[in-house]
Amino acid sequence: MYIGKSDDLSRRAFIKRSTQLASAGATSSFGLGLAGVAESAAFGATDGYKALVCVFLSGGNDHANTLIPYDPVNHAKYFAIRGHPDPSTGQVVGFNRDQLLPTALVQDANQILTDDIHYALSPWMPRLKTHFDDGRLAPVLNVGTLEAPLTKAQYESGDKTKFPRPQFLFSHNDQSSIWQSSQPEGARSGWGGRMSDLAQGANQNSMFTCINVAGTSVFLNGETAVPYRITPSGPGLISGLRRNVQGSSTASRALDELIRSTDPNILKADYADINRRSIEYGAFINDALARSTISTDFGSSNDLADQLAIVARLIASRNSLGVSRQVFYVTIKGFDSHSNLNAHQRLLGEVDYALDAFYSATLEMGISDQVTLFTASDFGRTLSINGTGSDHGWGGHHFVLGGAVRGHRFYGTAPSVSLNSEDQVGRGRLLPNTSVDEYSATLAKWFGVSETEMSSVQPNIGRFASPDLGFMKNSDAF
Description:
Elements: H1 11-18, E1 50-57, E2 67-69, H2 72-82, E3 119-121, H3 126-133, E4 137-144, H4 152-157, H5 172-181, H6 191-199, E5 210-212, E6 228-229, H7 239-242, H8 250-260, H9 266-290, H10 303-316, H11 318-321, E7 325-332, H12 341-365, E8 371-377, E9 396-401, E10 411-412, E11 434-435, H13 436-447, H14 454-457
Parallel strand pairs: 1-7, 1-8, 4-10, 4-11, 5-6, 5-7
Antiparallel strand pairs: 2-3, 4-9, 8-9
């Protein structure tokens, strides 16, 4: 489990963390750090621009209907569990094999998975199939939260001291937090933020190292790095400063004077300084966005695509923003599919469209090999069904997309299609055999985190056998 630093934070760190909304009573939707100060170890020499984009599937993605057993033997096992009509609605949760033909994945001929299993993507994800076929998409199998490698026998022993496992398994808030930070709900920093701690020194404007488009999340909180919050339409600004109120400039002038005034009280002075900087950065980033253009069509009525569109615009503004390393966080809600897994497929269709549009934007910018997108989620779900849905699970399958990805292959170990095998802990809940630590360390290494720095990003990484899963190009094993 990650153990953070002492709670005896410096005044600067306290101010940075406690004022992320930037100003009381303002419409600002982003947090603000004290800019221009690299309070962490720098990456040193950087090799051009690189960005990581975390797409969080909020609610716990049903991996079994996202990446589906397709070969005849394993599909028959899958359909025996998920192919029964619900008595009240007649809805069938599982996919017939012929429905999967258009999205069947043909992996590298040299790769043989457990039980000679072959997979197909959800029929709602044809674009991601193309990315897999073209070598840009890598599925990573059975990833989940772990404190150390764990077997089924060790799990069932109940000895949590000898065989530690994550706290509060199957809990949304806690497992989301552990996925993002290595700690249950209440964690202070996430691994995206801890990477940003290290990367800040590589950026001229450290404020824009980590950017959150999805609201509150521990993923981008660092020990010194503070996520900059932005909406899909751009940074939130204090409206009273931008226009007259009821036809008069009196209120805007008074607000400006209040914000720019000095105060002998240290906390008030720091708070006023934060407000001043929030105004400056809002104007700065709006100006940078105005100078960047992206012609890629992100469509409409797709919230995830809207979030990724502003990420693409920010990346296009990277030179104006003065950054060479960035970490972004976006999310799509609605994956807690206790019922109506048909709605889950609509969500996967939105993911498919949004990820494809984002990759197209990186191609347009000529940096598709410098931007890597990856998925995360609270947990996977049960293979067994409860009518028309599934329940909270543990391990699940995830995707990594980008020009630097070694695609057209699977990573991790394929689980058995069963409700009670050695890689299940009941009802088809997957016992993860690839840890979030290994998954994130592979991404962090490509991003520029060194072997000696890796434990500051994922403190438990030394407990696992594969600190580099191999799905990134130009990422040699430690």
